Amino acid sequence: MQRTVSVVAPLGFRLQAQSLVQSRPLSCVQTKIFGCDRVKLMESIVVGDIAELRPNQGILSLFTNEAGGILDDLIVTNTSEGHLYVVSNAGCWDKDLALMQDKVKEFQNRGNDVGLEVVDNALLALQGPTAAQVLQAGVTDDLRKLSFMTSAVMEVFGVSGCRVTRCGYTGEDGVEISVPAAGAVHLASALLKNPEVKLAGLAARDSLRLEAGLCLYGNDIDEQTTPVEGSLSWTLGKRRRTAMDFPGAKIIVPQLKGEVQKRRVGLICEGAPMRAHSPILSTEGTVIGTVTSGCPSPSLKKNVAMGYVPFKYSRPGTQLLVEVRRKQQMTVVSKMPFVPTNYYTLK
Length: 347
Prior knowledge:
alpha+beta; six-stranded mixed beta sheet; 7 helices; 19 strands
């Protein structure tokens, strides 16, 4: 069954909406990396295989440091316009931009052809099972040809120069629209004229991304967490693993073949909602880890969470305890995503 997006309203009322739109002009850093050596530069600071990306294809990747820690998560798209389009978190604005600018300067000083431009655009996220249908009314491009993690520049409801990417942070089908700041309000208003579309805040998005098992930087991953510990080994490009040519590779790659001290896991319980910083305990009552994100799941009618436990406790089905409001209750390690994702792929 296809999940309906749940928008949680005040006073506990729930509005069922087929699509939701969220304006995030301050929740991301959008940059363009230019030049013949742009791929080489990007691969010097992320773990993904950027060279293999097809035109207008993107991937989720990670900035890492030499200790193997995650500096931020980001999406890198190889555009057909001759640049890389990079989207990272506004909470890491200063360090992300400094990292990229310093690396550009370093490459330029070595005679490489690279450049960086900060994009002054807003980002609107339209998510839900009917998102593409809603958006199709405002574009001439055939959105059926736009698959998950691909993008195209198009006019959207009269606003030209928008980059539409088939992705999102909810686990549902949907798009993120990079729109010139001057056209952001017009575009959001045009989308909201469709009765299928409802505004959604961060709380609604947070419950959906948690159901999808998606990390929130600063909560579920940080500089003290490696990609392997964060259950994000799939972000490590196969060629990059072999070459071991990304920051922290000497620490991260060996972890792929051995046990790590901790591992991010999913948790499900039917008691009180688990929240960030709730202690995770063994069934003997010893504290072994911490919840990093947690909330009631609108889709499952159960409480879901993510957290870190020692490797030996990370197998799905393992019974543990979690302390909520100074009371212990049973919880079970679960596979993620908790709710199946509905990303759009070409058949």
